[in-house]
Amino acid sequence: METLVDVVRACGFDLPLVLVPYDTGRDERLESNLRRSPERRLEQLLATLSSTGRKRG
Amino acid sequence: MAEEEFDPLGIFAELNRQKVTYLLIGALARVIQGADELTHGVDITLPLGEENLRRLELALAGLNARPRDHRRTGLQERLERGDQVIPYQTDRGELKVVPLPAGTQGYDDLRRRMSREYLGHGIRVAIPSIDDLSRMVGAMGRDQDIERLLAMRRLAELERSLGHGLEL
């Protein structure tokens, strides 16, 4: 990893490493979305916005 | 319809009716590709040829689009001076025109891997690949996009692993 960061820095860039919590529910949600058609994904979004009162921009 | 209602199909219908060539990008494109996000706006990028811009202006008029930043400068002039995002409020919701999406070379760069997705009511919309949408998120370089980028990368992995098992 240090070698990688050294190489990136030699090229004039930096590679910030950030720890984020591992979301175990994410895969389930994404898989569920992938099993829907694009039409259903849009319908789901609009239903969520409507139910949370965020449909208005 | 109420002024601020979000009706993306209404926006696409008008763009398609005027035969605008465009790609849906941004959060709504990611959602349609399977991302788990909330958004209430439509972002598009498009070829900047004269005829396509004329069609876009007709569509904007049809949607009663007003610049959200209240600038009176016309679309063409804003493109010529290099505005990165041109935001409109329409009667169907927010519509942003992005001439050169972050991390890309523009419409021609993205169209190679695009797909045309059916969204209901007879409407099909062209959308960049998951990898290209990830590239755009990554290029934004904002802290709040890290989670979105991780989700998009995972989405790409899952799509590859699920393969033909999807009910599309």
Secondary-structure blueprint:
The complex is a heterodimer of chains A (57) and B (168).
Chain A: H1 2-10, H2 24-34, H3 38-51
Chain B: H1 8-17, E1 23-25, H2 26-33, E2 41-45, H3 50-62, E3 66-67, H4 75-80, E4 86-90, E5 93-97, H5 107-111, E6 115-118, E7 124-127, H6 130-140, H7 146-162
Parallel strand pairs in B: 2-5
Antiparallel strand pairs in B: 1-2, 3-4, 4-5, 6-7
Helix pairs in contact in B: 2-6, 6-7
Number of strands of chain B: 7
Give the radius of gyration of chain B.
Answer: 16 Å
Q: Alpha-carbon distance between the termini of chain A?
A: 44 Å
* Major sheet size, sense and barrel closure of chain A: none
Q: What is the fold-level CATH name, i.e. the topology of chain B?
A: Beta Polymerase, domain 2
Biggest sheet statistics of chain B: 5 strands, mixed
The CATH architecture of chain B would be 2-Layer Sandwich
Global morphology of chain A: elongated
Succession of helices and strands of chain B: HEHEHEHEEHEEHH
Strand content of chain A: under 5%
Q: Averaging pLDDT over every residue of chain A, what do you get? A: 84
Overall number of structural domains of chain B:
1
Radius of gyration of chain A: 20 Å
Spans of chain A with pLDDT under 50 lasting ≥5 residues? none
- Strand % of chain B is 15-25%
